[in-house]
Amino acid sequence: MVAAVAVSSSASKVAAVVMLLLLSSGCQAQLSSTFYASTCPNALSTIRTSIRSAIARERRMAASLIRLHFHDCFVQGCDASVLLDDSATVTSEKSVIQNANSARGFEVIDQAKSAVENICPGVVSCADILAVAARDASEYVGGPSWTVKLGRRDSTNGSPSLANRDLPRFTDSLESLISLFGTKGLSARDMVALSGSHTIGQAQCVTFRDRIYSNGSDIDAGFASTRRRNCPATPPNGNGNLAPLDLVTPNSFDNNYFKNLMQKKGLLQSDQVLFSGGSTDSIVSEYSRTPSTFSSDFASAMIKMGDIEPLTGSSGIIRRICSAVN
Ligand code: HEM
After folding, report:
1. Most ligand 1 atoms within 8 A of CB, residue of 64, 101, 167, 198 to mutate
2. Is CATH 1.10.420.10 the classification given to domain 174-301?
3. Fewest C-beta atoms under 10 Å: which of 166, 232, 256, 298?
4. What range(s) does the Plant heme peroxidase family profile domain occupy (predicted)?
């Protein structure tokens, strides 16, 4: 009898834990790839057309859009907070150091949003448009594709203080990066895979100057000297001068980034720490040897990143214009 009571009480504890788990994961469970199937069946093709034409005009835009989705998701979840401008009720995240003069692609998201508003007003969120744009961008430049889960809603405010706290910096150590991504539910392996998006896009001299003039042993001397040509030693001279994050194939989404790291040719310090005798060296060398593993891990990590704390159900709003609340 006592045993039976013990069994039934532990069974009810298990049931309670399962209920709690279901409740706590409730938000994420609501995202679904068919979310707009009946309310806006042409949403995805409309976004895609808009994004593809923007990248056809400027190939770097693919990189900028992937980064924008990342900078959205890491700050109070994937809620399009990064897109908001300052207003009477909104404090924008655009001026924090990780975004200022650096985050770009806002007008491309605005164009995609207005194309979607033309066919289904007030239905598709800016946060979902960002997630779809990142996937379309990767695909367009030869990277992996994946099915985007949808149903995120938009925030009514930004948070510069959370942006400042939660967006990584190019001076971060490997331990800090692993721990920061960990707070978002992403593993060290996810972090390395996602950093692989530095296979495309550009960085400004101000972000890699210290590294190329360090004369340290963790940077290839020839690579440092090449990069110094367009990045003068004394700030603020040339602060905004650009260099490709992947020196070999800056316009294609491939696994060259990881090969560069193994040759000490990572542009940012936060790139090189991924291969510098630490715990992620083995992941970098695996991705450099096996592009298909990098591709599939990148796609899974992007899906995981897109799941970070979405607003769903009746939380948040569907903004009519991505840069402002309704
Ligand atoms: C691991 C920590 C990371 C750090 C410290 C970091 C830092 C940076 C910095 C400093 C730049 C150059 C910005 C500029 O000079 O204007 C950059 C560019 C970029 N980042 Fe990251 N990043 C990280 C992770 C990621 C992740 C997870 C993604 C995407 C999932 C990403 C995507 C990009 C892309 C695509 C660019 C090029 C953007 C463009 O050309 O417009 N980064 N990143």
Report:
1. 198
2. yes
3. 232
4. 30-326
